[in-house]
Amino acid sequence: MAFIFESKSTQGRESAMAVTCIKVTICLTILSAMPLTTGFSCPINHNCHSLDTAPRRTTSFQGWVQDNDGEWQWQEDDASYPSSVATTTITATATPTLPSGSFRPKQSLGQNYLRDGNTVAKIVRAFVKDATETLARRNDGSNIQREGGTQQKLRQLRAIELGPGAGALTDVLIPAIGISNLQCIEIDERSVELLSEKHPELTIHHQDVLQVDYPSLAKKSFNNNDTGGPLSIIGNLPYYITSQILFALADASHTDSMRSATVTMQWEVGRRIVAPPACKDYGILTVVFQLYADCNIHFKIPPTVFYPKPKVDSALLGLHFVGPEKLRRRLVGVRPEDLRNVVTSVFQKRRKTVRNGIRKLAMKVLGDEERVKLFLDSEPLPLPDVVTIDREGGDAFALAQQLPKDWASKRPEELAPGQFIEITRMLYGADEDWQSSPLKSKVWRKLNHGSDSN
After folding, report:
1. Which of 40, 132, 320, 381 is most buried per CB count within 10 Å?
2. Tens of pLDDT along 305-340?
3. Which long-range contacts (CB under 8 A, 24 or more apart) does 293-301 make?
């Protein structure tokens, strides 16, 4: 899996592409005689099939060639690429290989393969750092000291690679952490066949990444030495479904099914996740993932390390999920589904004040104009005792949780993630038995993604 080009007009939530990319989108749409929708992006093709022997049209555009069934493929224009085999250590520097002439990236799957061994090595090293650090996390978010050196810790990982493609990351991960500690999710039949031939003992789930049931996967044993446990994610994500994949991981953390994620994404999306308040990048992704995880951009990735090259820079993002107990401690009875309603309402009108953005939702919840006015004019509630304790202990999230008195006159980007929790508490109230109340398994991901449990 990898990157895909998107038009700002149709995928505003996923970050705008450059004007030139929009021009490419329009031209490709005309060539394929299809109505303009989302440019290069399109629904994932569940009926993956090999295009090796398909007769080809002469229709081509800037490196993309269309075959008779309308599928756009990248036309390999460098006969010498790839020229060497990737090494199988974290210090890999050689070029990852593709099967000659038969494994072209599919535009419909958003595939841009990693072609630089040094970048592969940096990604795997960052993954090992994220995964081993969170391996020592207690359920309450605090850390414990685990016995054993780095190699012993690596053998304790339960890693899931999303969209391994031709196996650039896979080939380096296997010798690093052990093949029994790694499983892959892949929708492309060609990739499944290729990886099965290269690594017969590797567990590969032939599945749409949007439909993965992470809690169920976390309960299953990877090998004879474990009985299930939280997962560590690594992957080269497609642009057009980046946020939906991340939301699924956030939901999975409700059941302690997720420890960490080390994933590539469009640079602008990564910036949104780590953005501070009061800047244009600050938005829903910021609030959600700074609540659910400690977030960090490891490094920027240039287009030149992918095949074919995307038109924008990418980022490698590291997420250390705080776990369900610490998440409950931050929410203190506020239901995530109520928080979602508040956050989406105010950021849909991000240029307006919170008062204007939340009024319609408040009317729906409170049902009376007088009660809505009272809510919007009220001062913040006192912080829960557990938040006060965390503030005294220097917890950064809790220190930014107190609402200002003029909260309703602020714009959404002026409020810290924890302050949206307090607005939600004022509007919806909170569960008193919050320490034992289960968190819903599906809150942020779409209803038609994953299992239907609660």
Report:
1. 40
2. 987 788 899 999 999 999 999 999 999 999 999 999
3. 293/250, 293/253, 293/261, 293/319, 293/320, 293/321, 293/322, 294/319, 294/320, 294/322, 295/319, 295/320, 296/320, 297/270, 297/271, 298/122, 298/126, 298/262, 299/122, 299/126, 300/267, 301/119, 301/264, 301/267
How far is the C-alpha of 386 from the C-alpha of 392, rounded, in Å? Answer: 10
Q: In this structure, what token pair is assigned to residue 302?
A: 């240039």
**Residue 22 near residue 39 (C-beta atoms within 8 A):** yes
Is the Cα torsion angle 258, 242, 344, 454 positive or negative in sign? negative
- The closest of 186, 256, 260 to 228, measured between CA atoms, is 256
The pair of three-digit structure tokens given for residue 280, joined into one six-digit string: 């244009």
**Through-space distance between the first and last CA atoms of the chain, rounded to whole angstroms:** 29
What length is written for the chain? 454
CA 180 to chain CA mean position, Å: 24
Secondary structure element (H or E) that encloses residue 66, with its range = strand 64-67
Is residue 47 exposed (0-12), middle (13-18) or buried (19+ Cβ within 10 Å)?
A: exposed
Question: Phi, psi (5° rounding) for residue 4?
Answer: -140, 150
Amino acid at 413: E
In angstroms, rounded to a whole number, what is the distance separating the alpha carbons of residues 81 and 95?
9
Beta strands in 225-376 (DSSP E): 231-236, 258-266, 293-301, 306-307, 314-321
Q: What is the pLDDT of residue 397?
A: 97
pLDDT in tens, 138-189: 555 555 555 556 666 777 899 999 999 888 999 999 999 999 999 999 988 8
Give one word for 256, left, alpha or beta, with left for phi > 0 and alpha for psi -120 to 50: left
What gap in Å lies between CA 383 and CA 71, rounded to an integer? Answer: 56
Go through 340-356 and write b for each residue having 16 or more CB atoms within 10 A of its CB, e for each that does not: bbbbebbbebeeebbbe
| Closest of 306, 315, 291, 297 to residue 439, by C-alpha | 291
**Residues 277 and 250: beta-carbon distance below 8 Å:** no
Tokens 């004879």 appear where?
Answer: 224
